[in-house]
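About this split. The held-out portion is used to measure sequence recovery: a designer receives only the structure tokens and must propose an amino acid at every position. Recovery is the fraction of positions where the proposal matches the reference. Here is one held-out target exactly as it appears in the evaluation file.
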């Protein structure tokens, strides 16, 4: 081999060697960093395992059993309440804002707004009639009031509370 070739080979292998060195340094740094950062724990993992290991049924016995039973009943009650519209709330304003205001807020489709002049004649029909009309729906001269404002998941008590709230505002 001539001298130039030897020189080239020397330089070339030096460059390759440096690149390998850099690569090794990067690998080592990556490993160090990876070890330093704790792995992200799945927040639901424990719950999932608990659910999987949970016994199918349970017997409540003694004082601890009574407490556990009460807790289980409370949890079941809360789960059921979340199926009911507005979590079972009987706050008239909340339900009005969420459901009824779509029509009664603007008077859309002939719906009476909270203006007292829209309500004197209706209040004269008696609160029982207004409650029934709101729960079962009502076709009047002004338009169609859908049953429970079109939200069947409202309980009768919720609708009654909302009607009472609306009438209170319109007095
Ligand atoms: C899709 C529109 C619409 C929605 C939503 C709606 N209403 Fe009505 N509501 C009407 C209309 C229209 C009337 C007027 C009917 C008539 O007298 O002709 C009315 C009338 C009423 C009346 C008077 C009934 C009577 O006998 O005079 C009450 C009370 C009432 N609504 C309560 C509610 C409540 C409570 C909600 C919410 C849970 C609600 N409405 C949601 C359209 C609506």
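Reference sequence for scoring:
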């Amino acid at each position: 081999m001539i001298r130039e070739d030897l020189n080239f080979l020397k330089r070339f292998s030096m460059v390759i060697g440096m690149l390998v060195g850099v690569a090794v340094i990067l690998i080592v740094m990556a490993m160090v960093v990876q070890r330093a950062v704790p792995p992200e724990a799945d927040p639901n993992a424990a719950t999932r395992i608990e659910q999987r290991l949970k016994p199918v049924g349970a017997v409540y016995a003694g004082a601890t059993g009574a407490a556990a039973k009460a807790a289980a009943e409370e949890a079941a009650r809360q789960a059921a309440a979340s199926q009911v519209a507005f979590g079972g709330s009987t706050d008239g304003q909340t339900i009005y804002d969420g459901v009824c205001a779509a029509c009664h807020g603007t008077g859309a489709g002939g719906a009476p707004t909270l203006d007292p002049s829209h309500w004197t004649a209706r209040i004269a029909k008696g609160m029982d009639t207004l409650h029934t009309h709101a729960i079962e729906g009502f076709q009047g001269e002004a338009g169609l009031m859908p049953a429970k404002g079109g939200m069947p998941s409202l309980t009768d008590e919720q609708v009654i509370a909302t009607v009472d709230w609306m009438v209170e505002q319109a007095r």
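Annotator remark: The longest strand covers residues 138-139.
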